[in-house]
Amino acid sequence: MRKERRKQRKRKEGRKRVVVSSLPFEGCSHKKNPNRHYHGNQIKTSKYTVLSFVPKNIFEQLHRFANFYFVALVALNFVPVVNAFQPEVSMIPICIILAMTAVKDAWEDFRRFSSDRVINNRECFIYSRTEQSYVQKRWKDVHVGDFIQMRCNEIIPADILLLYSSDPSGICHLETANLDGETNLKQRRVVKGFSQQEAQFTPERFHDTIVCEKPNNSLHKFKGYMEHPDETRTGFGSESLLLRGCTIRNTEVAVGIVIYAGHETKAMMNNSGPRYKRSKIERRMNTDIFFCIGLLFLMCLIGAIGHSLWNETFKEHPPFDVPDANGNFLPLAVGGFYMFLTMIILLQVLIPISLYVSIELVKLGQVFFLHNDLDLYDEETHVPIQCRALNITEDLGQIQYIFSDKTGTLTENKMVFRRCSILGSEFSHQENAKRLKTPKELDSDSEEWAQYQCLAFPAKQAQGPATVRSQGSVQPLRRSQSARVPMQGHSQQRPMGCGESSQPPVAFSSSIEKDVTPDKSLLTKVRDAALWLETLSNKKPANPSLSTTSSIADFFLALTICNSVMVSTTTEPRQRVTMPTSAKALGMSLEKLQQLFQRLKLSALSQSFSSTAPSDTDLEESVGTNMPTTDSDERDDASVCSGGYSTDGGYPSSTGDQGDMLASAEGPPLEEALETPALSLASSDLCYEAESPDEAALVHAARAYSFTLVSRTPEQVTVRLPQGTCLTFDLLCTLGFDSVRKRMSVVVRHPLTGEIIVYTKGADTAIMDLLEDPACVTDTSMEKKLRKIRAKTQKHLDLYARDGLRTLCIAKKVLSEEDFRQWANFRREAEASLDNREELLMETAQRLENQLTLLGATGIEDRLQEGVPDTIAALREAGIQIWVLTGDKQETAVNIAYSCKLLDQTDTVYTINTENQEICESILNCALEEVKQFHGPQKPDHKCFGFRLPSETPATATVPVTPEIGLVVDGKTLNIIFQGKLENKFLELTQYCRSVLCCRSTPLQKSMIVKLVRDKLSVMTLSIGDGANDVSMIQAADIGIGISGQEGMQAVMSSDFAISRFKHLKKLLLVHGHWCYSRLARMVLYYFYKNVCYVNLLFWYQFFCGFSASTMIDYWQMIFFNLFFTSLPPLLFGVLDKDVSAETLLALPEIYKSGQNSECYSLSTFWISMVDAFYQSLVCFFIPYLTYKDSDIDVFTFGTPINTIALATILLYQAMETKTWTVAHGLLLVCSFLMYFVVSLVYNATCVTCNGPTNPYWTLQGRLSEPTFYLVCILTPVVALLPRYFFLSVQGTYGKSLITKAQKIDKLPKDKRDLEIQSWRNKQRPVPVPGGTQPILQPGPPVPAQDFRADVPKSSLPHQQKLMKDWVLHGESCGRDHRTGDPHSGTSSVQFSRNQLLEPEGENCTAEPPLRPTGKNIARELSQDSGPHCLPIISPQGLLARPECPLCKENSVLKE
To answer: Which is nearest to 736 in space by CA: 697, 686, 695, 708?
Structure first.
């Protein structure tokens, strides 16, 4: 027992790190410091040193099989018995290849070394006990246990636990852009117990022991506790940890103790370096290299056998057969084996040694042109495409499946408040919707306001350190500038050149996100709610749940308070606001304001509350610059101005309208109302920095109704009401948002009633299950009201989701003092726990977030990115399957799918939502059965030895119109599919679908889906996303693409390529992807062809030299042939060649299918090239052989014309394969050929005894004087290339491939080319079957959808028959209904939504095409719910009225 306990203690201690102060051990020996075992802060990312570079680099290069192969042959060539060449000469090729790679590696490692040196020598301040102060030292001198002092704008040197902040609230602000790319500031808090320090922190008084977790790479998780001398513990988490690489902002001084240093910091543990991925071509190439090795062994075996047979023909040993020292001759078998090894050395060039280096150089050139493509450059953000993986560019041309996130990838991720529902009452915000539809008009209005601004009253100087006012506004300083130099002038400067960025440095702060036009019907209720708040006292309000006024007040208070938004000023570094600004600090006195208002009529003043721009404009013209303006461009600067009027309505978005308050009978007096514009002006300098766009949208929405977030500290949050009154809530606890709970909560104490209130917001699926059960309410009327509110709110949520809005539910809960005290104690224990801390914190959250009272719901719009529908349509024409994996609601995702043309009105959409495995399996079976009725079983492409056999499927033009299939599943269904081993059936169904939507999916599910499709279907996959939740999906795919959007750079940092817009994916894949694949595939084939053709010349010669491994070409000529004469043309070909122009590739996306089918480089094309190489080598050898037969020329004289002919043939072959000719192509081919003659002439003139006993001295000079040499060199390449030329001619004339057709189109004039492209696109469209009956379409509503829904209990049923009988068909009159069952009914809903809309044929058809129903149509049609019945089904032949559904047994019961 004791041993087990000791083992358990050691295990627990092994999972912990204990840190103490290093000050008591300063000056002592290193062994006495208990922190000595931890890493220092010096980092080293370089791999080599001066001494270790050569051996280590050679060792790494030998891991590549080709390098090892050639080094082994060089070593074998040093064996005298089997050497074929001079051993020293045979080392030259492999040494050159290894040297080139070593130089590249050395340069990259030197750059890493230089970067390490700069970082290690940065300076910081470390506390010294001997100096009694902070002394300046370098980063590499920092150790665990040291106390570090950091100032504003300094970079944090190590992972530090925050113990002191100059901020009175103990807050330190960080910018984490170096880690995750997010520019919005993060808050870090001093460890509890250290935040109330009035004086400067003294490190020598720190005697606590820190116990925390071992170093790990989780940036967002950290737990530990601090043990005080009195043995009490204080827990802390990631909110108190300052990570290495982050920058201190908005904080003068921060002090902390080092917890992790150097390579143990979280930033360094996440820096795993560039990931290496092997492309599909590289995997194919490795296979073909093994084929070449097999071919080499076969040729060597033939040589060995031939040598033995030839030796047997001699009755006596020939004179060249020399015996050993003992006079013994080698046996024939041993001699044959030695000859086998010699032949391997002779024919080693069959394996292209320079291919790998050439591929790396070509990819660098491809990446260069890819990076400099202006079409992939985003002018708004000034960000070009980033190529982070240099070795998989060709995979961009072979993508078959794309997995995309929705929010921020297909949409803008600019969240705009659109609608809300409070206590079951819906407020549509029609004025705000109109504003969002006309963004260009907003810009013109903004310019008018900018011109008007200059005509206003002269501005006053605002008293306060944060700002310096000029005429109307503040010019923000960038974070890199000094905050002590105030900038004066207009903030209205637009960027004039492309070099300036129009993006505001504050995240989620564009004008369209900030400006919200209030709903007129809600304004008066909000005013009444604000006045009701002021009437509250310490007594609790009677029946608060029944009060609409109190619920509205709580709703907007929750929007304002329940978030993590930081409030700061527009100056840089931005100053955090901790107290509401006093009205006395403003320029105009109340007396002057009163004189201005006396000139206005009360009626005009009262109209300003709800009227549009004219009345508000008159009011603002009278007040001057002291009133907020509606300049939306001013709001596009660095600040998110909390105050000010919305752009179109003129309504003040921070405070209540003064005119309305004056007009109301029970409004405050004039002086009190006139304080409001002053407060509004002060608040116009506030910035809202949110961690998510949803939070920012809700805070801006509350601000539009004058519930303005003024300041936030860890202990308090201040809200200003429409009357100008400020309420300061004590912030008792904050439960942040996480992906498991899908909600966040704040616990506050109401300043007026003293109640402890929990405000919660989150996903409707999470909040609705946590509401108080109406059945528990004793009052019957209250119960009915609660049920009614819940039902109406759920209906509004469904309506919002169908309209494509992101939905959130708002709820509250009132706690008693005793309940909160017990919960707080439990929370503190959980925070102080080191073991199972996350589980305990989750349990505390679940104890608090229950029995909630529903307040309302919000709908936030996320706009579709520009060019997304066109991009998706083009990618689908290219044969790419597109899946959308999102965490959003099902209805929202489906609506976006229709908007971006991922789904079409004519598609049959199957929606599967179930938590039962048996139901899920049955649905998949039924869906497959129905789909196969239309499409038939899929017939895979048949292959024979790699050759694709012609498919039996008829041509596209004769395919009947079959309904396209779409599939929608949710996260719970995905769990059932993965857990129930239904992946194969799921994948079989998805192969019939043109689109798949996975809603409510977690990051883990996203990566599992990508891996499932990639591994099971053996297809090329691409994942694209913009957020941290997409990282696992991006890394799981063959190619990961990150979008540098609103959610930071974590997706970009984990990706292979980074773009700024989804529309850039179109050209990236269809143009650059096709080019990169086509160039590299044909270049690889050319290398194989070139080497096989040249090596076979030596092989044919062996039949005439007794298989003695002799050569008729000088070895230096063989080296020069591969390294110089034929190496540069394929490099230029691989970088610049374009088989089809970019315009044609974009106009005809179907051409992309050639890359998907690997038409350029496959097993068949490889063997065709091999056969062609064998044929050409035969011609190049035997024509010169027959020409010089029976002559007395020597061996090198015979080999010179063969070498010349081979070079000419190989270069002309390259010319025939080149599709795009430039001056560089022609010059390089000519120069390569001329270089051969220059080098050969010089070599033959100077080499007298280079390769004895036979030397190539003056060989080429002698051949150039003979006419036979010229005749052979001209005739032989023609005969060798004639079959290839004939094949290319026939292919170009009669070829039916997409590439051939596109190349023909490219050669036409522009007008004819456009007509031909249009004709091509018309032919690709499917046409009805001739003779098929066509339905007569009449103008009217769309064809009703067939909706298949099953409501069954969640618990699994014993018999499948019972399950089937419980399924009932319901008809819906809505053409696109994706309703789910009541989330509170305890049932799972399974739907088959069949949306069949036939478009009218012909130009003279009078029928109107069906329109996608809007939110209003859906709401109207949902109210017309009919009983269960079977609907007509649309078949390829038309509209068939059937009394019985194909899946029904008796009208409405499914077959068993």
So the answer is: 695
Which tokens hold the place of 625?
């610059």
CA distance 1159 to 1141: 18
Of 292, 142, 272, 461, which Cα lies nearest the Cα of 1167?
292
* Percent of the chain scoring above 70 in pLDDT: 72
- Return d(Cα 657, Cα 840) in angstroms, integer: 47
Strands 16-19 and 209-213: antiparallel
Distance (Å, whole) CA 290 – CA 298: 12
Q: Which residue has the tokens 């509503």?
A: 1341
Residue 306: closest CA among 331, 340, 330:
340
∠ Cα 1327 1332 1334 (to 5°): 80
Residue with tokens 């909630």: 852
Which DSSP category does 170 fall into?
-
AA letter at 1270: Y
Give the C-alpha distances (Å, rounded to integers) separating 575 from 251, 282, 912: 9, 54, 51
> What is the side-by-side order of every strand in the sheet holding 401-404?
386-387, 1057-1059, 1039-1043, 1021-1025, 401-404, 881-885, 993-999, 965-970, 908-912, 1387-1394, 1345-1353, 1367-1372
The CA distances from residue 566 to 173, 464, 689, 833, 1140, in Å, are: 10, 20, 5, 29, 53
CB of 1095 closer than 8 Å to CB of 1113: no
Residue 1124 neighbours by CB under 8 Å, 6+ apart: 1232, 1235, 1239
SS3 of residue 159 by DSSP: strand
Nearest-CA neighbor of 1002 among 1033, 964, 1043?
1033
Choose the most confident range, by mean pLDDT, from 924-938, 1026-1040, 1143-1157, 1341-1355: 1143-1157
- CA-based R_g, the chain, Å: 39
Q: β-strands 708-712, 716-720: how paired? A: antiparallel
Whether the bond into 1253 is cis, omega within 30 of 0: yes
- Are 784 and 581 spatial neighbours (Cβ–Cβ below 8 Å)? no
Task: Classify strands 133-138 and 123-128 as parallel, antiparallel or unpaired.
Answer: antiparallel
User: How many CB atoms are located within 10 Å of the residue 729 CB?
Assistant: 22
pLDDT, tens digit, 9 for 90 and up, residues 1080-1120: 999 999 999 999 999 999 999 999 988 988 899 988 888 88
Nearest to 661 by CA among 1222, 652, 626: 652
* Structure token digits, residue 262: 């150097």
- Alpha helix stretches (DSSP H) within 1247-1266: 1259-1263
Active-site residue numbers? 405
The H-assigned helical ranges of 753-902 are 764-767, 780-802, 817-832, 837-848, 868-877, 890-899
Q: Is the pLDDT of residue 786 over 50?
A: yes
